[in-house]
Amino acid sequence: MFHKVGPDETGGKLITVWIDDQPIAAEENEPLAAVLLRVEPYTSRMTPLSGAPRAPYCMMGVCFECLVEIDGMASSRGCMAQAREGMNIQRQVRRPDPLTEYGQ
Ligand code: FES
């Protein structure tokens, strides 16, 4: 679907993030939603009621279609988070428990 222009073109530092336990090359500080849009199945989450796949849409923190679990924090907006070395991202496939999965 999408592909990243090379770090030679942007001057960025290449790092590795983990999406659903798969190592993925990203550019340091790249929005995670941009990374998700170039990794199959190109989605960020499944809706809790129907299970329909959703993908980042607005890329500016408004639509909440990019919700993912980032380093154990459920329902984090992928477009507002920047890639860091070793970051662990899980696509959300269910409704998180607000009492235990949203942190403090
Ligand atoms: S893509 Fe819309 S809130 Fe992140």
Question: Explain this structure to me?
Answer:
With 104 residues, the protein is mostly beta strands. It has one domain (30-98, 100-104). It contains two helices and seven strands. It has helices at residues 7-10, 32-36, and strands spanning 14-19, 22-27, 45-46, 53-54, 67-70, 73-77, 88-91. The protein has a five-stranded mixed β-sheet. A two-stranded antiparallel ribbon has the order 3-4. A hairpin with a 2-residue loop joins strand 1 (14-19) and strand 2. The protein is globular and about 45 Å long. The model has no long low-confidence stretch (mean pLDDT 91). Residues 33, 56-59, 61-66, 77-79 line the site of FE2/S2 (inorganic) cluster (FES).
Q: List ligands, each type once.
A: FE2/S2 (inorganic) cluster
H/E element string? HEEHEEEEE
Rg from Cα: 13 Å
Distance between the termini: 36 Å
Shape: globular
* Main sheet record: 5 strands, mixed
Tell me the structural class.
mainly beta
Largest beta sheet: what is the strand line-up?
Answer: 2-1-7-5-6
**How much β-strand is present in the residues?**
25-35%
- Helicity, as a percent range: under 10%
Total helical segments: 2
Q: Tell me the number of strands.
A: 7
Taken together, the total number of domains comes to 1
Return residue spans where pLDDT drops below 50 for at least 5 consecutive residues: none
Give the averaged pLDDT, no decimals. 91
Question: What's the quick description here?
Answer:
This protein is mainly β.
